[in-house]
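seq:
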Amino acid sequence: AHADITFGNLEGGFLTGDGNVKKCSNPKTCYAFKSPDHYAKYFVDAGFDLLSVANNHVGDFGDIGRKNTINVLQAVGIHFAGLLDHPSVTFDRNGVKYGFCAFAPNTGTVSINDLENAASIVRRLDATCDIVIVSFHGGAEGAAHRNIKRTNEIFLGENRGNPYAFARAVIDAGADVVFGHGPHVTRAIDLYKDRFIAYSLGNFATYGRFNLQGSAGIAPIIKVFVDKKGAFHRAEIISTKQMGRGGPVLDEENRVLKEIIDLTTSDVPESGLSILPSGLVTKK
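struct:
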């Protein structure tokens, strides 16, 4: 709420009614996510201005769920993108024009694996916007996949994209900040052409029967400061944890900060970023 723009990934849709729930071949490994319509106001109260709807759960309740999610977000004034019929959005805030687009490997979303199309969308936004923000839902899932591979990541038989190559492709096209999510664990951060990348922001606020053990239960809030043209100035990492139902709380042990330091050092040692124990991120 203290930021000019607050971004998050909406993992699932808004639908008070039943909708058409997806059919699953193995119910034990299958989840269908939705929240009642009135929950959207909690996102507003929490300060969110911008949400990605490009993920594997936005279509859990079919077109009814997708359309209702769009209507609910528009009604409360939260900007969003990532569906084939809503690939991008632009808006003004405090004299700055922002462009946003989002990508995923899932049905009904703008593909993370079509780099040419992604670059084309970003170029169009860059032509009219001061700051272009890109979000992607990509990479394999779980504690065994905290490291980026710099190759296409196949998980459960699905091509989950190459987050390293994707981030560079969209920055080459004009993106200024790239926020990744999807692996359910936090990954490294990076800097390319003076533009900030977070490869995965982990699990921030979940509910019900989720594994929140170890790295799955910690996540960062990352405050990114850029100039009017989108060039990186500094960032601040705030560590959170989930104790179970009820959402995130601050983590006094700063475990996710330590994890980001370790992962950035091992996965992108050439990033040019310095991450201090205080959570301050600067250029070396």
